[in-house]
Design a protein that fits this description.
Largest sheet: 7 strands, mixed
Number of helices: 21
Strand content: 5-15%
Number of domains: 2
Distance between the termini: 20 Å
Structural class: alpha/beta
CATH architecture of the largest domain: Alpha-Beta Complex
CATH superfamily of the largest domain: Spore Coat Polysaccharide Biosynthesis Protein SpsA, Chain A
Length: about 550
């Protein structure tokens, strides 16, 4: 499914813009229709508008105020053209780019033609209702001619003589329309109706775009669903003795590099595992610990039984295997009005129970399932955490106010304001090194449970596990070099190639995950490189490498 641009709400700025557009349209109809269309001496206003500023035209004097209104029209014409003509965002952007690269004389003529189109389309609808068939045909013809001229302009072209003829022909037709419908109030009503209709269309498109984006984010692609079903059915066809991984190491071996992945996505987990092994200097010392839910456990097991991560070792658990978890653990994170699985997933909150999930481990790296490992991670085990629990990259910069604790946590609550610094920098999740021995000593799991229960009683933070993580690990985090972990490939299109390729771990944080069709195309290959699309299971489920548009 392909989804359009973001569906951001209008906000205060949107209302001001809409009000300004309405004023411009009314002004265009009432204040100086005569100036634009029917000045007898044929001279031009500055910027290419027919008529001479400051001259008397049929008893109408063009005042300073009217000249300023002309300038406003000139500034707002691209917005009006886009909204009233029903152009797509892509076509409007191309037209704006073409105008901005055109020579000055060409720009003015293009702007004039777009002004003419706005007025012509308004008169066309008005004329259609009043049965003026000849005028309707003439307006339609002139509109097609002007649209064709605009579409054929190149960034370097001058205005051809034929285009000037079309402009003059449109001026004459608009003059006829103005003489046929001289009553300003009628035209104002028409423009108001057109503006209202355009606003309703924009509002509907925004709502539809937002809905489709959420569906795309929350819906498992058809091929992934097929893969999970096929793997699950084949897992249950195995003999019980064939459903286990060979035990080559024991959990007590402290010289292994332990990596934990909490995921319900088979292919995402496969990419994390494959990329980690590929980047490792000593992959035989790596042990992966994947924890998934009961529904996806068979599929996850079958994938790695048939695609073992040699020479590394792997262990897979289900939430159901963790008998010490509360009985309602899988459901306690559901919140009214919040359906995004990123905010309601039990696996996201399981990170706060790491010492209990891995009681025999003292140190491990936790990787989100939407990361790709590009460098050897063994150096993380050599970092001195100085008695703290968490090693993570900070997400804020010196001049950045967005990635501060105050944007996640409710500092109007006394229990928050007295314990935390509102300007504290947010640290990232997705690639973290944890000292589980120190975690146990400081009782951070107990602190998590305390804060979680407090958050259920009153609103202390935004949805999800990230704000809670900032509180639990407050003053317990050692900042890592930013080259360990680059975030934002799931929402930020501006990340430079150099920053990505220098990073040890790249993270598709955001909605646009690399396994979705709505992912950012230029970042897909970093993920696709670690998935074997010739795998029989992927072929059977029609999961193919998406083509990246150049």
């Amino acid at each position: 499914m392909r989804v359009g641009g973001g569906g951001g709400g209008g906000g205060g700025g949107g209302r001001e813009r809409e009000a300004a557009l309405l004023l411009v349209l009314i002004a265009a109809a009432c204040g100086f229709v005569v100036v634009l269309l029917n000045l007898p001496d044929g001279r031009a206003l500055p910027g290419g508008v027919p008529g001479a500023v400051g001259e008397h035209t049929g008893g109408t004097h063009v005042s300073v105020k009217e000249r300023r209104m002309v300038e406003i029209v000139r500034q707002r014409q691209d917005v009006a053209a886009q909204e009233l003509e029903g152009q797509t965002d892509e076509n409007a952007a191309e037209a704006d780019e073409r105008i901005s690269r055109s020579p000055p004389g060409t720009k003015e003529k293009l702007w004039m033609m777009q002004d003419q189109l706005i007025m012509a389309k308004a008169y066309l609808q008005f004329a259609s209702l009043h049965g003026s068939a000849h005028l309707v045909r003439e307006l339609k013809l002139r509109i097609k001619e002007i649209e064709r001229v605009i579409s054929h302009f190149s960034s370097s072209s001058r205005v051809p003589t034929s285009a000037l003829q079309k402009i003059r022909a449109m001026e004459m037709t608009l003059s006829k329309a103005q003489r046929a419908y001289p009553h300003c109030s009628h035209m104002t009503a028409k423009l108001r109706a057109m503006t209202h209709q355009s606003e309703e269309l924009v509002r509907a498109h925004r709502s539809e775009t937002s809905f489709l984006e959420q569906v795309a984010v929350r819906t498992l692609p058809k091929g992934h669903h097929c893969l999970a079903m096929r793997l699950t059915s084949e897992y249950f066809l195995l003999d019980p003795k064939e459903r286990e991984f060979p035990q080559r190491y024991t959990m007590q071996m402290g010289d292994l590099y332990h990596h934990a992945i909490f995921s319900d996505n088979v292919l995402a987990s496969a990419v994390v595992v494959n990329s980690t092994i590929s980047a490792s200097k000593d992959p035989k010392r790596i042990m992966f610990h994947i924890v998934t839910d009961a529904l996806n456990f068979p599929a996850m097991m079958m994938w790695f039984l048939t695609n073992p991560p040699n020479p590394a070792t792997i262990q897979i658990k289900s939430l159901d295997h963790l008998k010490w978890l509360p009985a309602d653990f899988s459901f306690r994170f559901k919140q009214k009005g919040i359906r995004d699985p990123r905010y309601t997933s039990a696996l996201n909150h399981l990170r706060f129970y790491l010492p209990e999930v891995f009681p025999s481990l003292n140190k491990l790296v936790l990787l989100d399932h939407d990361v790709v490992v590009q460098r050897d991670l063994s150096g993380l085990w050599q970092i001195d955490l100085n008695g703290k629990v968490n090693g993570a990259v900070e997400t804020c910069t010196s001049g950045d106010g967005y990635h501060r604790l105050e944007n996640l946590v409710n500092f109007s609550d006394p229990s928050i304001i007295n314990k935390f610094d509102a300007k504290a920098c947010i640290h990232a999740f997705g690639m973290n090194i944890f000292d589980l021995k120190e975690w146990r000593r400081q009782g951070l799991t107990t602190a998590y449970n305390k804060w979680f229960q407090a958050g259920k009683r009153r609103r202390l933070w935004k949805a999800g596990s990230l704000p809670l993580g900032q509180i639990v690990f407050y003053n317990q985090t050692v900042p890592l070099d930013h080259r360990w972990h680059v975030l934002g490939l799931g929402h930020d299109r501006s990340i430079g190639r150099d920053a990505i390729e220098r990073a040890a771990v790249i993270h598709y944080s955001g909605k646009l995950k690399p396994w979705l069709e709505i992912s950012i195309p230029k970042y897909r290959d970093y993920w696709n490189n670690f998935l074997d699309y010739d795998n029989p299971y992927l072929q059977q489920c029609n999961i193919h490498m998406p083509k990246v548009k150049q």
